[in-house]
Amino acid sequence: MTRVWILPVLLVLCGAALTAGRLRDGSPADAAVLLAVFVLLAAVTSPLVFPRSIGADEAQRRSAADGRPVVYWRPGCAYCLRLRLRLGRRAGRAHWVNIWRDPAGAAAVRAVNDGNETVPTVVVAGGAHTNPDPAWVRERLR
Length: 142
Hints:
Residues 70-126 form the Glutaredoxin domain. Keywords: Membrane, Transmembrane, Transmembrane helix. The chain has helices spanning 6-24, 28-45, 56-66, 78-87, 103-112, 134-140, and strands spanning 70-73, 95-98, 121-124, 127-130. The chain starts with 5 loop residues before the first helix and ends with a helix. The model has no long low-confidence stretch (mean pLDDT 90). A four-stranded mixed β-sheet has the order 2-1-3-4. Helix content is 53%, strand content 11%. Helix 4 packs across helix 6 (134-140). The chain folds into two domains: 2-48; 51-140, Glutaredoxin (3-Layer(aba) Sandwich), CATH 3.40.30. It is of the alpha+beta class. It is built from six helices and four strands; from the N terminus they run αααβαβαββα. Strand 1 (70-73), helix 4 and strand 2 (95-98) form a beta-alpha-beta unit. It is elongated and about 60 Å long.
């Protein structure tokens, strides 16, 4: 669980160190901008950007009942973030599974990706799609 926060925490710490250096140099405006950029990057790479994750078994059960896609993801994945941001408000309609928190989810991803944990992997109606076009996923969420 702690590894999902390593990158965001490192970004905040680096931003704080660089900001302190700018403040010592007498550049408070530069320091404020620099800190804002690093905090924004930390927020975007944190798991807080994604909808609440559920277990793979629960996601598959819900998907079978309502037909919505199951999105397997992991924190720090740029492609997962791209998918999440491009889905916008519709992202909450999908069932999200964090493969770093759910071993069954990681196993499901490996099963459809030749043993690799390639994410995002979206499963719709039993068919798996690795790194699909966000527009295609949006269509499945209607």
